[in-house]
Amino acid sequence: MEQKEQRGFALPVAVFALVIVGVITTGGFFMARQEGRIGVASEYAGMAFYLSERGLVDAMDNWNRDLYGALPDWGDTTFTRDYTGLGQVTTRITRMTDLLYFVDVDGTVTRGGAMRSGASRRVGVTTRLVIAEIDPPAALTTRGTTSLSGTAEVHGEDEIPGGWGGFCPDPLEDKPGILTDNSSQVSTIGAAEITGDPDVVEDTSIDDETFTDFGELDWDDLTEWANIRLSGGTLTTLEPDSTFAGDCRTGQAFPLNWGNPENPGAACFDWFPIVHITGSANIQSGGVGQGLLLVDGDLELRGDFVFYGIIIVQGSIATQGQGNRVLGGVMASNADFESQAFTGGSVVTNSTCAVTRAIRNNSGLTRVRPLVARSWVDLSAISES
Amino acid sequence: MNTGDKRGFTLVEMMIVAVVGAMVVGATYQILLSSQRAMTVQTAQVQGQQAVRAGLDILTSELREISRSEGDILNMAPNRVEVRAMRAFGSVCGVAATGSPILVQKVGRFFEDGDSIMVFADNNPDLVSDDTILPGLVSTIDKTQTCFGGEAAQLLTVPALAVAAALTDDTVRLGAPVRAFTRYTYGLYSVDGDDYLARKSGVTIAPLVGPLAPNGVSFTYVDSLGSVTTNPRAVSRIEVTLRSESSVLNQQGRPVAGSLSTAIYLRN
Known about the structure:
The structure holds two protein chains of two kinds.
Chain A: H1 10-61, H2 65-69, E1 76-83, E2 87-95, E3 100-109, H3 113-116, E4 120-131, E5 140-142, E6 146-148, E7 153-155, E8 178-180, E9 186-188, E10 193-195, E11 200-202, E12 213-214, E13 217-218, H4 219-224, E14 228-230, E15 233-235, E16 243-244, E17 247-248, E18 274-277, E19 281-283, E20 287-295, E21 299-301, E22 305-313, E23 317-319, E24 325-332, E25 340-342, E26 347-350, H5 352-360, E27 366-370, E28 376-378
Parallel strand pairs in A: 5-8, 5-24, 6-9, 6-25, 7-10, 7-26, 8-11, 14-18, 15-19, 18-20, 19-21, 20-22, 21-23, 22-24, 24-26
Antiparallel strand pairs in A: 1-2, 2-3, 3-4, 4-27, 4-28, 12-13, 16-17
Chain B: H1 11-63, E1 73-76, E2 80-95, E3 102-107, E4 116-121, E5 132-137, E6 140-146, E7 152-157, H2 161-166, E8 177-191, E9 194-201, E10 204-223, E11 235-249, E12 255-265
Antiparallel strand pairs in B: 1-2, 2-3, 2-8, 3-7, 4-5, 4-8, 6-7, 8-9, 9-10, 10-11, 11-12
């Protein structure tokens, strides 16, 4: 029996419906994917922005004053840093003047492979160096009765520390040997000596603030920025060359490392800490240090202590024994007007180089900060493209 | 001749086919319809999301750079904020002892005649306490100048007497940043019956993204302690919420809507 082909239209209709549904589903997937891509692009754009911001902060936190300071006006230097798993930051630092710098950071996201990486953002900030204005006006600035005996010496003639010749750009500046509120209370006995330009100067305006206010900084600022805090008492030794794997070990974890001023090749030669002694201290039996030594109470040097930089004492200062040597400047408030005695073979010598290096090599005393207002700029937003 | 079995469809068969066919077509149509509706809703949702996202990007970019301490927030309301928005940036590379003009090396866009500018005045370079910002209005620009290293520079003349007198080399020093700005109001504006996030300058309203919901733009001004403030100079961050609303209705019969919020911390 021959059977004729009998087809309905259900199959074509079903196929048509499947095609339509397929098209709609594909369209939905396409839109969802587009939306997903836009979301990812937005996320990565945000990532690039914060990468640039991080680059800005890192550039200011790790300010290389020697390198940037040596650039000519309007000269610049560029460096690149990788942030593993996130992106790359190219930083250009332009020196405008001695104190003004422009930091230009371009952050590019590398995370996500070839498909997703590449988002970039460029931001900038105008910064200025803020350098603490601590300039001891004499080799020894103090108040009240001050006597030198034995072979103690105070010299206002500027001296460059041995081996520091290449690190002292500023011209020499002789200062008074002693600046005091009452010159009649300064005396020498025996072979003790005071020299300077002039030897002794009287300034009746010297008061407490002379020893606590330094330009735009005060005593609280300085002590707050201390790298090392000690409670006082007797210090019998220092560790000027505390290193690990060739690096200088610094900070509160190594409170006896006050730098290594007498060995220019040493790892700790550029370590100029702010040391804050919250009480009174006796430093005896040697030790070498540099930086800024702040003492809330009295300070007594008992022999063979060598210090390069600035010593500021809110109480009185006294020396005894042989070998004490301070290059830089000493300021002793002596608020209680105690009798201060420099005995033995102690020597205090003015050194503008030691003072300058103590300030400029401490990140707390030489800080780079954004301008007071309108320092930050989104350079991507004003690009010509 | 074999004539074979030559029967036609019976009425019952035809009715069954018609009913089954109608069911298949009806079901297919329903699927199609619901898919299309879902797609329309989804499209409206996506467009709304894209609109508010783009709007937040614009607002973030504009508002992040303003300075509260320098009074860049001129007016602030729950649905609008008027600010000085930066348009050009450069650094002073030449300044005379007698004041205006100043030579500026731009970054990005050119400065233009009539720009309102802000110039950083260092005064005594050893002091931070005397640093300030000088406002000015550029009258003419010479774009043919050069700066350090032969870089292209613009010579800006800023004639206002008091400002010009202050633009001296012991006040505005080399490296001082210069910014040009424009007053813009960002907020919700009605354009052709729809609500948009728009930028108003003078009487000109430029729609940016939309359409948005009638309450589609809201600003909350927060100070550094986290409290809502009405003092423009105390604003530390601006919290922005954008809400989209479409004429398309969702399955519940409500307009398709979406919203995004962000907190913008002021950098300057």
